[in-house]
Specification:
With 193 residues, the protein is mainly alpha-helical. The protein contains ten helices and no strands. It has two domains: 10-97, no CATH class; 104-190, no CATH class.
Length: 193
């Protein structure tokens, strides 16, 4: 993982996008079929893991870095037959995919749930603080937001997840099993624009 001294991850995004584009180019040159049944599983198994590897640690927060990674998925969805003429959002809807930004958010919320439910007891004892409230609106399991002077601190996993967690619907947060949480989270994220 490549990180600048001020915790910027632009170089990591560049290297990751290059690796993913090389893999995508290999798929394009070695696979004759352009059917979604062929290209989509190859993209999901070979390319997307590079774009999402250790994303909780090096998540891009600059628009140019996010766009650089998103371009790889744009290219992959355009490779499929009958998808070339559609807009990117329409291709994602047709293929039942999320944008990489939504996938990152999904992964972060799943990791936050695991910390909150005690899957990582030693590491996650005090990562998040619960906000005690008598209000009935929202999900009933709100987290406390901290205040920081530094913008860099605001980008840390434990800080940036609080707002997203607090916006989740009650039925997602109250899910008894991880798989049920994922299904309900997918439903909530698909409603986002």
């Amino acid at each position: 993982m490549l990180v600048y001294e001020k915790l910027h991850v632009a170089w990591q995004c560049v290297v990751t996008a290059q690796k993913a584009n090389c893999l995508l180019g290999s798929i394009k040159s070695s696979v004759a079929s352009r059917l979604r049944e062929v290209i989509l599983p190859l993209y999901s198994a070979l390319v997307r893991p590079h774009l999402e590897s250790c994303i909780q640690l090096w998540r891009p927060w600059h628009k140019k870095d996010m766009d650089l990674l998103e371009r790889v998925q744009r290219r992959a969805t355009k490779m499929m037959r009958e998808m070339e003429q559609l807009f990117y959002e329409e291709r994602l809807r047709e293929l039942e995919l999320f944008s990489l930004e939504k996938r990152r958010l999904r992964g972060h919320l799943i990791a936050a749930l695991q910390y909150l439910k005690g899957a990582y007891k030693k590491a996650g004892e005090r990562l998040f603080m619960r906000a005690w409230s008598n209000r009935t609106r929202g999900n009933g399991f709100k987290l406390k937001e901290g205040r920081f002077r530094s913008d860099t601190r605001k980008k840390f996993f434990t800080v940036r997840m609080v707002g997203h967690w607090n916006l989740l619907p009650r039925e997602a947060v109250d899910a008894p099993f991880l798989e049920m949480f994922k299904a309900r989270l997918d439903g909530a994220l698909s409603n986002l624009v």
